Amino acid sequence: MVKRPPYPGGSRKLVLAFDVGTTCSGISYCVLDPGEVPEIKGVLKFPYQEAVSGNFKVPSVIWYSADGDVMEIGAGAVRDGVEQEAEDGQWSKVEWFKLHLRPKALGKDEVGEFINQIPRLPAGKTITDVFADYFRYLFQSARTYIEERHPSRELFWNSIESNIEFVLSHPNGWEGAQQSQMRRAAVLAGLVPNEQAGAERIRFVTEGEASLHVCVGEGLMTEAMENGGRVMVVDAGGGTIDISSYGNSGPDSKSFEEVAAPQCKLRGSIFVTLRARAYLEDYLRDSTFARDVPDMVKIFDKTTKLRFRQSDEPSFIKFGRIADTDIKHNIRSGQIKLDGTVVADFFQSSIDCITKVILEHHRDHNINTVFLVGGFAASDWLFHRVQAAVKNLGIKVCRPDNHVNKAVADGAVSFFIDHFVSTRVSKFQYGTRVHIPYQRRKASHRARINTQFEDLSGEMCLPGAFDVILPKDTRVTEKQEFQEGYKFQGRSKDSSEHIQTGVLCYRGPRDTIEWIDEDEGNFEVMCSIEADTSLASRALVPRRTSDGRTFYELDFKIILLFGLTEFKAQLCWEEHGKEKRGPARVIYTTE
Predict the structure, then answer these.
(1) CB under 8 Å to 580, separation ≥6 — which residues?
(2) For residue 62, which of 86, 166, 331, 427 sits 20 to 30 Å off, Cα-Cα?
(3) Mean pLDDT value across residues 309-321
């Protein structure tokens, strides 16, 4: 267990962590009192869950009316009788909504066919709206739960209401655009005011890093990292499997660094269910029980999938009445029998995905211990198959007993308090589109001679080059800056009063790439950075070309900071001989 020092702050503060999962969500919190040792606690009861106190998770489900109002949410959305009320009231059900926020790059592989089966959002609702409604529900649930545990309910809440820090967790593959939408949703939900001070009260942490914090807190890392060992945390959830690998960053056993870029795979437990649905729809296509497939899938998801342990034994889905029988399709007494090898195949893509990354990181980064956490980790079949696949290499696969379902929420609070990770690894190449001077001695330049143009200074240039600011797989400390210098040209001073430039991300397989059109499909505009450079513009001195034309040129730098869990970018230039940064704004395409 982590031995924390007393909180050194000067005033009481509440840290609230929301883990919005694909199927279920959780909340953890910590009251930071000056001079007191912080203690992380979980919200263990939600509305409509009074009879099951101690449940760390609540369903990520919302029912909307035709007018877009929230009718039921969370535990209330799955209570007895709600389906009938929804049918009578023509409500729309929203579930698995988290995956609507995913980056476009996720889901382009073999799971792409299943992505289209994620339920659509109701008309008039954006994913930001849905997250806002769910954040509002989580916040209200947390407030009620916390207040009930303090004798001076209103007095206590008044003491922390304006001093609440929120930590929002998300899959490893979510990036700045997704964080921007989540922050906007938090504002819409009323968690923080729509101002800079409010925005700064929201932090983000990846689910992989949050899970590491829990493993450290449970005392699991010390033995695993003896003699230079390194660990992998596999957070297997409902929608994604998040994979992160770590080593010690120094003699301190509670200071860690990423040793490989974190990965995010759409191979969570819902894809096992979707494969089961596809199989049942095809298998029962000519059966009178084809109409019962939706009910079969619900029962498979809640029971059969969780109980599956052996491929040499059949599995059963009990969906109907005793009289329901179809011998041809293995249906007897209201239940369908599935061969164990068929059910095992539903899991195989997830198992292969995890084992492949384990083997790669063992080979390249000396990973010798794997911690499997998250709701999907509760599957004995998943755990034992992964364990068996890597056993001969001496890799230990462990499944912590303590609340695998609430690891992320607890770890998100620990991230805020303990901050164990000091170095992270860039996942892709990041840079910007530039034009460069034409050099006839270079074959690649001669091949593009038909694209050359003359810039305002009279120099012949080629457009569409990619200038890398941060290479892929670079280890980055939290305060480390990566910067490159550029020039902005304009025919007047006014044209230099405002700069906006894009930051590109290259996701392709090439280690180096000079021109964007060499692999254009793997480039993506990550964000734009804009800044007011009017003061610097006023001080510019006109320059002249050899033929007497006048132009203005402003030197500036793009600065990228990747060492934090939230991407930061800045523009830098000089005003009256002094370096100037900002005011600059990072703009994502979702805004």
Answers:
(1) 535, 536, 572, 573, 574
(2) 166
(3) 95
Q: Are 142 and 120 in contact (CB under 8 A)?
A: no
Task: Classify residue 198 by its DSSP letter.
Answer: H
What one-letter code names the amino acid at 312? Answer: D
Residue pair 161/12 in contact by the 8 Å Cβ criterion: no
For tokens 């596809």, the residue is: 278
Predicted confidence at residue 403, as pLDDT, reads 46
* Nearest CA among 100, 92, 54, 99 for reference residue 73: 92
Average pLDDT over residues 124-145: 96
Largest CA distance in the chain: 95
Phi and psi at 396, nearest 5°, equal -90, 130
With bands split at pLDDT 50, 70 and 90, how would you rate the model's confidence at 1? low
Under the banding of pLDDT at 50, 70 and 90, the label for residue 569 is confident
Is the predicted pLDDT of residue 563 greater than 70, yes or no? no
The alpha carbon torsion through 131, 133, 136, 142 (nearest 10 deg) reads: -80
DSSP state of 326: B
Mean of all residue pLDDT scores within the chain: 90
Give the whole-angstrom CA distance, residue 189 versus residue 137: 9
Q: What is the pLDDT of residues 174-233, one digit of tens each?
A: 998 999 999 999 999 999 999 888 888 999 999 999 999 998 888 888 777 776 779 999
**Three-state DSSP class for residue 31:** strand
406: confidence class by pLDDT, cuts 50, 70, 90 = low
Please tell us whether the domain made up of 229-244+261-399 is placed in CATH 3.30.420.40: yes
Strand, coil or helix: what is 25? strand
Q: For residue 563, give the nearest of 446, 470, 463 by alpha carbon.
A: 470
The two three-digit tokens of residue 223, written as one number: 């033995």
Phi, psi of 171 (to 5 degrees): -60, 155
DSSP 512: -
Write the pLDDT tens digit of every residue in 354-387.
999 999 999 999 899 999 999 999 999 999 999 9
Q: How far apart are the first and last CA of the chain?
A: 42
Fold match flag (13-207 vs 229-244+261-399): yes
CB 333 within 8 A of CB 198: no
pTM over 0.85, yes/no: yes
Give the strand pairing for 429-437 and 475-477. Answer: unpaired
| Dist. CA 172–CA 233, nearest whole Å | 12
Q: Which ranges constitute the DSSP H helices of 168-284?
A: 176-188, 196-199, 207-217, 221-224, 269-283
Distance (Å, whole) CA 386 – CA 364: 19
Instruction: Map residue 143 onto helix, strand or coil.
Output: helix
DSSP structure class, residue 419: -
Please state whether beta strands 164-170 and 202-206 pair in parallel, antiparallel, or not at all (unpaired): parallel
Residue 235: phi and psi, rounded to 5, are: -95, 100
Model confidence band, residue 55 (pLDDT cutoffs 50, 70, 90): low
Where in 400-481 does DSSP place strands (E)? 421-425, 429-437, 453-454, 460-470, 475-477
Give the Cα separation of 220 and 1 in Å (integer).
9
Distances (CA, A) of 552 to 223, 459, 461: 62, 14, 17
Q: Which residues share a beta bridge with 484?
A: 558
CATH class of 13-207: alpha beta
Q: What are the residue ranges spanned by the domains of the chain?
A: 13-207, 229-244+261-399, 429-587
3 state SS of 398: strand
